[in-house]
Each structure stands twice: as structure tokens, then as C-alpha cells.
Design brief:
Helix content: over 70%
Number of strands: 0
Distance between the termini: 16 Å
Shape: globular
Length: 424
């Protein structure tokens, strides 16, 4: 957990640096244009990767099938999903009903997609093998390199939005080279490009369920930005995008825990012990999230205009409004990682499909009247509904009463003691 947390902190600092540079150098409209473009491949990749990363964790962790065959199947799936992602993104950009995007930007984004997918799939291999160190490198590397290249292309060379996307493309190309070398040279996997029918079917079957769950979650995360772009202004998109970027920093600590729970769940044989441990981690994560949320709530009014510029003072109330929804989702992410590691990702679909519909309907009414604030309230309600439904279903799935999941124990706080001992 500390290893992944370290990489997440590096991501947080790097993302903050990127956000500062882009907001100050591009302005609200430019940052809004950047956000409107980047949201499309993020959402499409969330679906077209077919949930293969998590499927790879499950299959490698179970140690039933030969790893060479699993990795070969992954590379073949990487080729298919890259082509599919490029076609879908190209279609969306080409038929965009808003102001046409710069073709050079679109080509650059499309060429970056296979690189992004390679790093996603590689993370599944490392986590499946419980190689946490390399998983942390794959997690933090692209963002750190993107920050350095953003300084070069956007700040120094003044290349505006184009420079921002060049930075992303080059960063992911560098990480692509590193991950390919690890997989082929160090792990010595023999990639055959052979169609292993049984493995492919098994991975795709589980992966598709993961993909639908991930897509629904991504759509819940990003639907607000898409609807703001349609129903409001690019400036409002820029303000809201920055607000979500800051508020979502609360997810970095739970994400570190979520990653380990997912990896260990795929490898464990003692389900009851794992259920108890995950419930304890769930309770601790909520406490950490509350402390972090309160800090962001009170610090944001001072730090946002200081760091991002006075223009982005409009993001502050959006940050404060959306924090409860971000906090609520922390618990869901921890528990969902447990079920996903058990090969049951479909539960998230049952919980968040109704939440997605609620999010859409509320945005239709609230965004035209309240802009980003309305989108933030829609997010809160959507996340709350989905998380409550999920926790109830989770309780029934693992046969653990709700009061057992939420009741704090003295042993819960051994987590903090273990961290303190580890730091000595």
C-alpha cells in the first residue's frame, strides 16, 4: 500500500503541476478545449480496453493457465482494442456537432491511443504477478514525464493546446518502450501472436463485464463535462474540470488500497479472512477520506486562485459542493476491488446504471440554470445512489451484515500503527 501510495503521490504532484501550467498558459477557454478533447479518448478507452487489465490480473493471479499464453493473448487483444478505439474516437471527433477540432490535434490523440492501452495492459501483468514496484512505475511514470514535457512544450515553447498533447504522446511512447523491454527482456515472455481460443474467450468474457462496469463508471465521472460542453460554455467546462481534478485527489489514497486489494483478491484462497480485512480497510479509508475532504474544503478558497490564477476562483464553490460525492465513492472503490478480484465485476453495473440515469436527468435540469454547480450536485446524488445500492448488494454477496461492515473496531487502527512502524 505504501509503495502504491508513493506512486500516487507522485501522480498527484505531477497532475497538480500539469494543471497549474495548463490553466495559467491556456486560460479557461483553452483549458476547456483541452478537457473537451481529452475526455473522448479517456471514455472510449475505458470501454474498448474490454476490462482486459483487470481480467489479466485475475487470470495471472489464479496461476491456472500458462503465463506466456496469457501475455500472448494480451498482445493480440492490444492490437484489436487499439484499432477499435481509434475508429470510435475518430468517428466521435469527425461527427462532433460543436466547433470542429484542429485535425492535427485529433491525429496526435488517435496515435497516442495504442501507447496508452499498452501501459494499461502492462499494469495488469505486473499486478497479476504482485509485482507492486513495477506497477507503481507504470502508474506514475507517464504523468511525471508528461509534466516535464508540458513544461517544455507549453510553458517554454508556448505551443498551447498542441504542446499539451505532444507532451502526453511522447510521455506514453517513452513508457511504452520501458514496459515492452521489461515484459520481453526481463520477464522473457515468448509472444507467439497465436490465437489461444480458450484463453481469449475466458479473458474476453470476464473482461467485457469489467469493460461495461468501467465504462459506466467513467461515464458517471465524465458525463458532466460532456453535458457542460453541450449546455454551457467552454469557460464553465474549464472551471468544472479543474474542480473535479482537485476534488478527485481524495481518490489517490483509496486507489493505492484498491490496487492492492484487487491484486491480493486474485491471489488469495482464504475468502473469509479477505472479507474481514477489506471491511476494515473500507472503514479506515472513509476516515482518511473525511480528513482529506475537510482539508481540501477549507484550503481550496486560498490555494486555487494563488496557484491556478484569479480567473479560476469560480472553481472553488464547485470543489466544495462535489466533495461529498467524491468521499462517498471512496467506500465503493474499496469494496468493488474485492468483488472484481473475485471475478464478479458485474455488481458495479447493477448499482451504477440507475445512478447514471439519475446523473443524466439531473444534469439536463441543473446545468442550464446553475452551470458547474448544478453538475456538481448531480454528481453527488449519482455517486450516493450508486454507492448505497452497491454496499447493500456487497453485504449480501459476501454474507456480511451492514452493521459489521460499518462498525469500527480497535483492530482497524492497527493500519496506522503498521504504517508508523514501517516508516521508522
Amino acid at each position: 500500500i505504501l509503495s502504491i501510495l508513493g506512486s500516487n503521490l507522485a501522480v498527484t504532484v505531477s497532475s497538480l503541476g500539469i494543471g497549474i501550467i495548463l490553466s495559467r498558459m491556456l486560460g479557461a477557454a483553452g483549458f476547456g478545449l483541452y478537457s473537451a478533447i481529452i475526455v473522448v479518448p479517456i471514455m472510449v478507452i475505458g470501454f474498448t480496453q474490454l476490462g482486459i487489465r483487470r481480467s489479466a490480473i485475475y487470470h495471472i493471479g489464479n496461476k491456472i493457465l500458462p503465463e506466456d499464453h496469457i501475455v500472448s493473448a494480451l498482445f493480440l487483444l492490444l492490437l484489436w482494442t487499439s484499432i477499435l478505439s481509434i475508429l470510435i474516437c475518430g468517428f466521435v471527433f469527425f461527427f462532433s456537432d460543436s466547433q470542429p477540432f484542429d485535425p492535427l490535434l485529433i491525429v496526435l490523440v488517435l496515435l497516442t491511443i495504442p501507447l496508452l492501452l499498452t501501459n494499461v495492459f502492462a499494469g495488469g501483468i505486473f499486478l497479476g504477478k504482485e509485482d507492486i514496484k513495477r506497477a507503481g512505475i507504470i502508474n506514475a511514470g507517464p504523468t511525471i514525464i508528461t509534466l516535464l514535457l508540458t513544461i517544455l512544450f507549453v510553458w517554454i515553447l508556448k505551443m498551447s493546446v498542441l504542446g499539451a498533447f505532444i507532451a502526453i504522446a511522447l510521455a506514453n511512447f517513452i513508457m511504452f518502450f520501458i514496459t515492452y523491454r521489461i515484459i520481453i527482456v526481463e520477464f522473457r515472455y515468448k509472444i507467439t501472436w497465436k490465437y489461444h481460443e480458450g484463453i481469449m474467450k475466458s479473458m474476453i468474457k470476464l473482461g467485457l463485464v469489467n469493460a461495461i462496469a468501467i465504462f459506466i463508471m467513467q461515464l458517471n465521472y465524465r458525463l458532466d463535462i460532456l453535458m457542460l460542453k453541450k449546455l454551457s460554455t467552454l469557460e464553465e467546462v474549464g472551471f468544472y474540470s479543474l474542480a473535479m481534478q482537485i476534488a478527485e485527489q481524495l481518490w489517490h489514497i483509496p486507489y493505492a488500497i484498491e490496487t492492492i486489494v484487487l491484486s491480493r483478491s486474485a491471489n488469495t484462497k482464504d475468502d473469509q479472512s479477505a472479507h474481514r480485512t477489506v471491511a476494515s480497510i473500507f472503514r479506515v479509508s472513509l476516515l482518511i477520506g473525511i480528513a482529506g475532504g475537510l482539508s481540501i474544503f477549507f484550503i481550496a478558497p486560498y490555494l486555487v486562485p494563488l496557484i491556478f490564477g484569479q480567473e479560476f476562483i469560480h472553481s472553488v464553490p464547485m470543489i466544495q459542493v462535489v466533495l461529498p460525492g467524491i468521499l462517498i465513492l471512496i467506500g465503493f472503490r474499496i469494496l468493488n476491488s474485492r468483488l472484481t478480484g473475485m471475478g464478479k465485476p458485474q455488481i458495479a453495473i447493477y448499482a451504477f446504471m440507475p445512478a447514471l440515469v439519475i446523473n443524466f436527468i439531473m444534469n439536463l435540469f441543473l446545468i442550464p440554470r446553475f452551470g458547474g454547480i448544478g453538475a456538481a450536485w448531480s454528481t453527488n446524488v449519482s455517486y450516493a445512489v450508486g454507492s448505497i445500492v452497491f454496499v447493500v448488494v456487497y453485504s449480501q454477496m459476501v454474507k456480511m451484515p451492514l452493521q459489521e461492515i460499518f462498525r469500527y473496531r480497535k483492530s482497524d487502527f492497527y493500519f496506522f500503527r503498521n504504517i508508523r512502524n514501517r516508516m521508522k
